[in-house]
Specification:
By secondary structure, the chain is α+β, with helices and mostly antiparallel strands. The protein contains six helices and nine strands, in the order βαααβαααβββββββ. Among the domains are: 58 residues, Helix Hairpins (Orthogonal Bundle), CATH 1.10.287; 69 residues, Cysteine proteinases (Cathepsin B, Chain A, Alpha-Beta Complex), CATH 3.90.70.10; 50 residues, OB fold (Dihydrolipoamide Acetyltransferase, E2P) (Beta Barrel), CATH 2.40.50. 25% of the residues lie in helices and 12% in strands. Strands 1, 2, 4, 5 and 6 form a five-stranded antiparallel sheet that branches. Strands 3-8 form a two-stranded antiparallel ribbon. Helix 1 packs across helix 2 and helix 4 packs across helix 6. The relative contact order is 0.19. The N terminus and C terminus are likely disordered. Bound molecules: 2-acetamido-2-deoxy-beta-D-glucopyranose (2 copies). One 2-acetamido-2-deoxy-beta-D-glucopyranose (NAG) binds next to loops. Belongs to the peptidase C1 family. Pfam families: Inhibitor_I29 (PF08246), Peptidase_C1 (PF00112). InterPro entries: Papain-like_cys_pep_sf, Pept_asp_AS, Peptidase_C1A, Peptidase_C1A_C, Peptidase_C1A_papain-like, Prot_inhib_I29.
Length: 315
């Protein structure tokens, strides 16, 4: 299971299929008012008069962006719609949900291997349900546990949801809710001899004391290194009407994208792929033996034999 750092900027947060994604040109101002009122009801949000006007302006400019993008002349392969982030500016969204920019470029992977035409680990039962990272820059932790969940299922046939919170609290090489690197998270799990289950060490969306007792988007995306600020787990790939895509499991809840997932263009001519998806060499965990659950704490999953794959494991 390959993992990549993925860039999602420039309004990526409003990507989702929605009945409100209309095919005609754009909404009239009075329609946008009504949309904003029903958006507030749907998302249980109320504002005082002044803030409401500010939020309306932002909402309006997001709706304008959506309408422009969805214009039939663009013949895009995707449709944008409203979601729970439509009240935020791009800058606000980046600040809350994306990580500080990555600084490290890892060496390229092995191109001489022949791969099957398509893969979807979800249909193999190797992908847990979509999580919601909430207001915590923890995509790295979810991505790391997502990969370990996958390899664990492949080797042991058990699909167990693992604790991103343990990484946030206990992996001091990473920065909790302020971002982190996947290969460091793998090293943590390896050195720790495994990682706790999600049930036993549940998600809190903020950094807490380490509890050791517990055991096909293709536009508007920059692939320049300095813009890469998000990571997501690749759970498969495929092709639809000649359009090749990667399947990403995101951590912005199930109402985002395609039930929490997103397909992003594969085989882009850009040097680093669509949205910089190929900017970092993929990292993945390896597990060679089906180790049993820890006898001291049966909620803890032992991954003793795990090494991180790829060049990044050398560090
Ligand atoms: C934006 O809306 C969400 C609900 O979707 C709410 O939780 C959040 O507080 C709002 N943010 C602002 C700045 O209005
Ligand atoms: C690339 O993969 C091939 C086939 O599995 C293998 O023989 C080769 O050693 C690999 N090269 C590197 C640099 O890992």
């Amino acid at each position: 299971m390959a993992i990549v750092a993925v860039l999602l900027v420039s309004m990526a947060f409003i990507i989702m299929m929605s009945p409100l994604a209309l095919s005609r040109n754009s909404h009239r101002p009075d329609e946008v008012r009504l949309m904003f009122e029903s958006w507030m009801v749907e998302h249980g949000k109320s504002y005082d008069i002044k803030e409401k006007e500010t939020r309306f302006q932002i909402f309006q400019s997001n709706v304008q962006f959506i309408d422009d993008e969805n214009h039939p002349e663009n013949s895009h392969s995707y449709t944008l719609g409203l979601n729970r982030f439509t009240n935020l500016t791009n800058e606000e969204f980046q600040k809350i949900y994306l990580s500080p920019k990555h600084s490290e470029v890892l060496p390229a992977g092995n191109a001489s291997i022949r791969y099957p035409a398509s893969v979807d680990w979800r249909s193999e039962g190797a992908v847990t349900s979509v999580k919601n990272q909430e207001k915590c820059g923890s995509c790295w932790a979810f991505m790391a546990v997502g990969a370990v969940e996958g390899i664990n299922k492949i080797v042991t046939d058990n699909l167990v949801s693992l604790s991103a919170q343990e990484l946030i609290d206990c992996d001091n090489e990473n920065n909790g809710c302020k971002g982190g690197q996947i290969w460091k998270a793998f090293n943590f799990i390896k050195n720790n001899g495994g990682i706790d289950t999600d049930d036993d060490y549940p998600y809190k969306a903020e950094k807490k004391e380490c509890d050791v007792d517990k055991g096909i988007y293709q536009e508007k995306c920059k692939s320049n290194l300095k813009y890469v600020d998000h990571s997501a787990l690749v759970v498969g790939y495929g092709e639809d009407n000649g359009m090749k895509y990667w399947i990403l499991k995101n951590t912005w809840g199930t109402d985002w994208g395609e039930n929490g997932y997103m397909r992003i263009k594969r085989g882009s001519r850009r040097k680093y792929g669509m949205c910089g998806i190929l900017r970092f060499s993929p990292v993945w965990p390896i597990k060679k033996e089906a180790t049993s659950l820890n006898t001291d704490n049966e909620n803890s999953l032992q991954i003793k034999m795990m090494n991180s794959g790829g060049e990044s494991s050398a560090t």
